[in-house]
Amino acid sequence: MLADFGLLYCAFFWGISFVSMKILVDVYPACWILFLRFTVAGIFVYLFFHKRINKSLLHDFKSGTVLGFLLFLALATQTVGLNYIGGGRSAFISAIYVLLVPLMVWAMRKIFPGWVTLGAACLCILGMYLLTGDEMSGTFNLGDFLTVLCAFIFAFQVILIDKYDHGCDPITLSFVEFITLGFFALIASLLFEPKKELINAASLPELIFTIVFCTFGCYMIQICAQKFVKPARATIIMSLESVFGLLGSVILLGEPVSFRSGLGCALIFIAVLAAELHELGVRR
């Protein structure tokens, strides 16, 4: 249950981070934000756990590099896709990874996730559809393709975390993942984005919050928690990110909420509750 609460922590702060990210994207280009977030978070991990990281095996570093590169690809394709489709449409398509994870585990490992898990994943998708509003009309375009690709990469990364967690040190995985993502984000920023000042004093509180709580804390906790939680259930718990994101926008930004969005939140919450109660029943 402690691992479940860890993933709930991730969902909460990732959801709340939408508020701070709305401020940061007006100040920095997307890849530059990723560089700042993950590079500084990687430095924090090393400062706290350098003795443990220095004793890690080469396999830990190789695995962390793969995870960091995949996470960069997922975030990059999602960000570029936003240039062609709306945020709600992007959020819904990205959320398909919740259903892709159990299906991919079933296909790759021949492990049936169970009807309750599959049903909860489908309920999450329906909840996200209601939550993201009326942006799903229109023809399939490049933005849709990139965001679908993002969902597949996210799903594959979650499955790989589950695989690597059982043979690697999770702290080292987090450190290498952060530094790898920061490196590729820096290269992409220098090649494709306009030059910006490194630190903007006006947005410093939001930047610190995003680095400390939403990056350093969340991504490291995700890797540690997935050591004890199956990938399919982990993605269902983390889908609460969208619920917390909506609540954060309402409470902190004063944005209105519709009945449709509220119903979407309720369905996602029911899906998470069903998955958790099913898991408790299995343990007994």
Summarize the model shown.
79% of the residues lie in helices and 0% in strands.
How is this structure best described in words?
The chain is globular, with a radius of gyration of 18 Å. 49% of the residues are buried. It contains 12 helices and no strands. The chain has 284 residues and is an all-alpha fold. The protein has one domain. α2 crosses α9. Helices cover 79% and strands 0% of the residues. The protein starts with a helix and ends with a helix.
**Beta-strand proportion:** under 5%
Q: Which regions have little confidence, pLDDT < 50, spanning 5+ residues?
A: none
Number of discrete domains: 1
Q: Helix coverage percent of residues?
A: over 70%
> What is the overall pLDDT average?
82
Main sheet characteristics: none
Give the H and E element order: HHHHHHHHHHHH
First-residue to last-residue Cα separation? 14 Å
Number of strands: 0
Structural class: mainly alpha
Shape: globular
Number of helical regions:
12
**Rg over alpha carbons:** 18 Å
SSE blueprint:
Layout: H1 2-24, H2 30-54, H3 58-81, H4 87-94, H5 97-109, H6 115-131, H7 142-165, H8 170-192, H9 204-225, H10 231-238, H11 241-253, H12 259-283
